[in-house]
Write a structure and sequence with these properties.
Order of helices and strands: HHHHHEEEHHH
Radius of gyration: 16 Å
Number of strands: 3
Number of domains: 2
Structural class: mainly alpha
Distance between the termini: 30 Å
CATH superfamily of the largest domain: Iron/manganese superoxide dismutase, C-terminal domain
Shape: globular
Bound molecules: manganese (III) ion
Length: 201
């Protein structure tokens, strides 16, 4: 069964001014759609055609680079859109406590996350994840993610941010750090906490 692109869960200009409408339009309609088209092409007529997206991601190490990159691209973008919401969503006291227990403070988490995103050379993703009962921050190259069998940092992702230039260049140009700072204004903490509670079980 071919994969298809879901509409964004909000309007393209809904994350303004932090993420501009034109970037969202190109990113969702062209880039994300492109990963899906290429994924469908790469799996058509192969034994992978009947696998779920999660399954393809888990098997990343034993599938072709075309399937790995595009399955990762589809998974990561879907997760990215769902992790954001207009005006952000307030961090609950319960989840703030989890962050404080794991990182010392919310600012310390932000700092580690910014560091992970800034130090990822070239294109990739920064992640807040959960593994072994703890929250962690890491990054991955290209369209890899922490669920892949080949991941350097394996965990259940709770929040991910795209640090490919196409995610921020129109508005922020070379200032990846400013984009990463602005990202906090649109995080859907309710969704992150839901993911955390599911991962914890
Ligand atoms: Mn992208």
């Amino acid at each position: 069964m071919a994969f298809t692109l879901d509409p964004l869960p909000y309007a393209k200009d809904a994350l303004e001014p932090h993420i501009d409408a034109r970037t969202m339009e190109i990113h969702h309609d062209k880039h994300h759609q492109g990963y899906i088209n290429n994924l469908n092409k790469a799996i058509e007529g192969t034994p992978h055609a009947n696998k779920s997206l999660d399954q393809l991601v888990k098997e990343a190490g034993s599938i072709s680079m075309a399937v790995r990159n595009n399955a990762g691209g589809h998974w990561n973008h879907k997760f990215f859109w769902e992790g954001m919401i207009p005006n952000g969503k307030k961090l609950s006291d319960a989840f703030l406590k989890v962050i404080n227990d794991n990182f010392g403070s919310f600012d310390a988490l932000k700092e580690q996350f910014a560091q992970a995103g800034a130090s990822r050379f070239g294109s990739g993703w920064a992640w807040l994840g959960f593994s072994d009962g703890r929250l962690n921050v890491c990054s991955s190259p290209n369209q890899d993610n922490p669920l892949m069998d080949v991941a350097e940092c394996k965990c259940t992702p709770l929040l991910g941010v795209d640090v490919w230039e196409h995610a921020y260049y129109l508005k922020y140009q070379n200032l990846r750090g400013d984009y990463l700072k602005a990202f906090w204004n649109v995080v859907n903490w309710e969704e992150v906490e839901k993911r955390y509670n599911a991962a914890k079980k």
